What does this fold into?
Amino acid sequence: MQIQIFQKALNGTSKEKVVVAEGSGSWLEYVQFDNKVFWTVEDEKPTWLMVNDKVNVPEHLQDYLLPSDSQLRLDMAPLKAKNFEEAEKAKYELEEQQRRDKKLRHDREKERKQASK
It folds into this structure.
C-alpha cells in the first residue's frame, strides 16, 4: 500500500499540498517512509496473558484484565483442558443468559416506549 503525507503550503494563500513523506507498508508486514523502515511485524511478538480465571493473573496485571475479557468466560477453562462436554454445557449456559438479558432489554425498551406515549 502506498502512503503519502501532505502538508499545506505555508504561504497561507495557496491551497496547494506539498508531499513531505512517501511510504508503503501493511500492518501484516512493515511500514516505511522515505525508504526507512520504521516497523516490521517481526519487531514485536506479544506474549498474551492466558488465564483461566482472575486468580491466576499476576497481581500487578489484575487492573488491566477487564471483567469482560473472553478468557474469563466459564467455558474457556474446560475448553483449554480439552473437556469439550463441560465446555459445551458452560457455553450453552452463557448463551442462555445472553438470550435472557436480550429479552429483558427488549421488554424494558417496549415498556419505555409505551410509557412515553
